[in-house]
Amino acid sequence: LNWKITNDDFEDRISLTGLEGEVYNTSKDATSEDGEPNHGLYSAIRSTWWAWTAPQNGMIKFTLMTGSEHAFAVYTGDTINSLTPVGSVVVDPAQSVIGDIVVSVEAGVEYQIALAYHRGVVASHMLSWEPVNSNDDWELATSLSEATGTIFADNGDAEAETEEPQHAGVSNFHSLWWTWTPAASTLATIDTYGTYAESDYTL
Asked: For a disulfide at 132, which of 54, 55, 157, 197, Cβ 3.0-4.6 Å?
């Protein structure tokens, strides 16, 4: 099978669609271009490109899986010379074969994704993207506006922050945040009814 890539150059980047998905590719026959930036810590010896336009506001996790040392990065900008980095990661397969970048995205904005292998290695890879919780970090807490209500959330992709305190005396690994301002002084009940695992929450 002679598999030749089509997304070697920035101008030939493959367009990705949908809120989530996955694609497969290879660095075989990939090269670098004049004006191409370093991706993470790596110079672009063999790089490939994709473009993804956010269908809605939120947080998106880009994941790249391969068995070789690599870096991949996410940018905004529409020319190779005007890219603004919004996230990057360098992955050593001795520690992990998966690299993740979580990006806050804006509906209608096109994001450019680049992959570069260390020392120009030739390898195959899988790139996937999916939405994650937007209220993982304290600064991105979701605002609750109603006096009463029910919300549904999944903390499977959530992580604790540096210097985040314990909640109810328990170390946190998958925390989510909300804010709520009552309209008047009153008693309020907050519970996690319907949770299928042991949970702790703190005000």
From this structure: 157
Distance CA 151, CA 197 (A): 16
Q: Write the pLDDT tens digit of every residue in 133-168.
A: 767 778 778 888 888 887 766 676 677 777 888 887
**pTM, entire model:** 0.67
Please name the amino acid found at residue 34.
D
Write the CB contacts of 48 (distance below 8 Å, at least 6 apart in sequence). Answer: 5, 7, 8, 25, 27, 30, 114, 115
Q: How far apart are the first and last CA of the chain?
A: 59
Contact (CB, 8 A) for 98 and 52: no
Burial class (CB in 10 A: 0-12, 13-18, 19+), 88: buried
